[in-house]
Amino acid sequence: METIICKGCNRIYNEPLSLSCGDILCRNCLCEKCKICSQTITWAIPNKTVKSYIDSLIVKNCSNHKNQENDTNSKKSTSYCLQCESFNNLDQITSIHTYH
């Protein structure tokens, strides 16, 4: 999972950007110098590969949330619940989460 966690904020990437220094940070973590290696950032471009991978894991709601959408992601063994803001093994969600 660490490949989808921003080292600047320790959360799942929000609009991941590839930086001129070779690191990846969230758009929210972007500043003049890289928070990982301290190099000056001369350019930043969206990292579509990381974004697509994260998008493939996201479910809007786990099984204990209202308005759960019937989603193809619900069949995957690992997902990210937007409401809980955490990754979960879908087989364990029912026993781990309380109703929000």
Can you walk me through this structure?
This protein is of the alpha+beta class and 100 residues long. The protein folds into two domains: 2-47, Herpes Virus-1, CATH 3.30.40; 60-96, no CATH class. It is 14% helix and 20% strand. The chain has helices at residues 48-57, 93-96; strands spanning 16-19, 24-26, 44-46, 58-59, 78-81, 86-89. Strands 2-1-3 form a three-stranded antiparallel beta sheet, with helices on one face. The protein has a three-stranded mixed beta sheet with strand order 4-5-6. Strand 5 and strand 6 form a beta hairpin. The radius of gyration is 16 Å and the shape is elongated. The model is unreliable at 67-76 and 90-100 (pLDDT under 50).
CATH topology of the largest domain: Herpes Virus-1
Computed over alpha carbons, the radius of gyration is 16 Å
The mean pLDDT is 75
- The CATH homologous superfamily of the largest domain is termed Zinc/RING finger domain, C3HC4 (zinc finger)
Poorly predicted regions are 67-76, 90-100
Largest sheet: 3 strands, antiparallel
Strand content: 15-25%
What is the molecular shape? elongated
Can you write the helix and strand succession as a string?
A: EEEHEEEH
What is the CATH architecture assignment of the largest domain? 2-Layer Sandwich
Cα end-to-end separation: 25 Å
The proportion of residues forming helix, as a percent range, comes to 10-25%
> Structural class of the helices, strands and pairings?
alpha+beta
Number of helical regions: 2
State the domain count.
2
The total strand number stands at 6
CATH class of the largest domain: Alpha Beta
Widest sheet: strand ordering: 2-1-3
InterPro entries: Znf_RING/FYVE/PHD
